Amino acid sequence: MTSLRYDISVLSRSQHTFSVTMTIPATDHDVLVLALPAWIPGSYMVRDFARNIITLNATNASGESLAVEKTDKQTWSLVTNKQAASVIYTVYAFDLSVRAAYLNDEYGFVNGTSVFLEVPALSNATCEVTVSLPEALDHWHVETSMPLTDQNGAHYLCENYAELIDHPLFMGECVLDSVNVDGAEFVFLFSGNTPINTKRICEDMVPVCQHHLSLFGKPYPVDRYIFMTLLSDAGFGGLEHRSSTALLYPRFDLPLEREGGAKTDQYVTFLSLCCHELFHTWHVKRLRPAVFLTPDLSQEVYTPQLWIYEGFTSFYDDVTLARTGLISPEKYLEIVGQNLTRLQVTKGRFKQSVAESSFDAWTKFYKQDASAPNNIVSYYTKGGIIAFGLDLLLRRASAGKFSLDNLMQALWRDYGADEKGTPDDVIEKVCQSEFNIDVSDYLQKVVYGYEDVPLNDWLADIGLCLHTRPKNSAADRGGVPPSPAYQKHPLGAAIKSADLGVTVQVVFEGGAADLAGLQVNDKIIALEGYVVGDVLLQRLLNQTDKTELAITVIRDGRLLTLKLPVIEERQEACYFTIEDKEKLAEWLTS
C-alpha cells in the first residue's frame, strides 16, 4: 500500500479559501468512498465540516475527469476503475476557533478534520502532506507537530489518517519561542505580530511541564510539543492533540514584551488553560475511554466517562499552578471557591448527574441555551470537585499513603501507556485493586446520583474550612470572604443592558424572576414606576422594605406589569478559610 498525498495551499485570503489536492494511489477498488469527519475528537458536537467544501472534482493520472457523486452530507463516491486519482477541492475556512479551519490576512490555521478527506478503504495508509505557499507569502512560517520529512520544506508524513487529523497546522505570521524540559522541547507559538512576552511565558510554563512529566514518568509520550495559540480580540478555547494543543485567547490578556509585575487573573487563566491541555497529552489522548480508541467520526460516540477526563483535568489545571508556586495557596483557594460557587448556583445538578452530562454532551452541554443553568450540570466543574473530594477520600482512607496522584499513575500504567481504553467503572476498579479502597458509595452518590460532594467531611485534614455567604452582586463569582455591601434581594435572572432597560437572558428556577413569571427575552423597563438599567434595578431591589414590587416588561411587543416578590439573597457564594497553614502546605507538596 502506497501513501495518500495531500497538497494544501492558500487559494484566497480575502475569500478565506484553501485548495487541497489529494492524490490516491491505484487500488483494487473500482469505486472508492471519500469522507470528511462530522466532529473532531475532544469536542463532542456534530459540526458537519463537509458543509465548507465548496467544489470537488477528480481526475485520473492522464488528467481525464472521473465520476464523483455526493452520497450524503459528508461522503462522496469516486469511480476510479482501480486507477490512481487526484481529487481537487476547495475549502472555506473562516471559523476562528480551535475546532475547525481559519484563514485571514495574517495566518491560516487548519485542523485535519476540516480539510483532509479520508478514504476509508485506505485509512491505514501513510499520509504525506505538503504545504504550498505562493511567493507573496514566502515569509509565512509553517508549524505543526506532524513528523517532518524534508528539512528544507513543509513536507510531512503521518502513519495513517487518524494521526493526520491529530496534528493541527499553522501557516503565517507568528511569534515563536521554545524551552527544553528534561529532554522534551516545548514550543510556544502566538499568531500575528503582537509583542507577547514569550520569555516570561516559557519560564512560567517550565514548572508546569516538569510537574506533568514527573507525575506520569518516563518514557514521555512526546519529545516535542507545541502550544499553538491563535490570538484574537476576545475569543477563548483549547483543544488537545497528541503532540500539541490549539488555543484561542485574547491577545492583550497576555503579558507583553516589556511588561513585568504580578500575574493578572487573565494571565493565570492562560497558564491554567495551557496546563489543562498539556495534561490531556496523557489523560485523553492516550488514556481514554475504550469507545474513543477508534471512534466513528461520522456520528456521535457516547460515553459516561467525560467527568473523569475533563473533570480530573480541571482539578489538575489549577492545583498544578499552586503546587509549582505559580499562584499562592490563597489564590488557588479563591479559584476553587469560584468553581464551587458556579456549581452551587446550578440547579441542574439536582436533575442531571455528571455521568448523564457526559453521555449527553453532544446534545446538551455543547448545545446550551437559556435553560442550561436550571437543567444540566457541567462535567468539567463538578468533575473537578469530585476529583478534589476523591483525593481527600483516598488520603483519609489510606492514612496518607495514597492520593489522586497515585490513582492517575495507576491508570496511566494499566490503561494509558499501552492505550487499552478504560471501561466505565475504571475508577472503582483501580481504587479497589491498587489501594484496597472501596469508593463505589462515594461515586454512586456524586457521579451517578445528584448529591453534592461532601468536601467538609475531609477539609479539616488539609487545614481548610468551606463557607457560604450571600453574593455581593450579580457578578460576584465567590471565592473570597463577604464584604459589608452585598446583594440583599436578587432579581433571580441573568440580564444584559439594552437600549431601554435590560433584557432577560436566563430565569433561575425558584428565584424572584421565576416566581413573578418573567421569561427569557423579556425587556425589563421599569421597577415601581421608575425606568431602570442594570445598576438602578439592583439598587432599588436592595433598598426596598416591601415584600412585592411592580415590574414592567415588554414581551414580544406587549407591555406587562408583573408582581416581583422580594426574596433574601441565598447563601450561594463559596469561599475557604485556612485553619492550618502547615497542613495545607503539606497537601500541596505531597
UniProtKB/TrEMBL annotation:
GO biological process terms held by the UniProt record: proteolysis
Domain of life: Bacteria
Tagged with keyword Protease: yes
Cited Pfam families: PDZ_2, Peptidase_M61, Peptidase_M61_N
InterPro entries: PDZ (IPR001478), PDZ_sf (IPR036034), Peptidase_M4/M1_CTD_sf (IPR027268), Peptidase_M61 (IPR024191), Peptidase_M61_catalytic (IPR007963), Peptidase_M61_N (IPR040756)
Keywords from the UniProt entry: Hydrolase, Protease
Domain (PDZ) ranges: 491-529
One example GO MF annotation: peptidase activity
Protein name: Protease
Species this chain originates from: Alteromonas confluentis
Lineage: Bacteria, Pseudomonadati, Pseudomonadota, Gammaproteobacteria, Alteromonadales
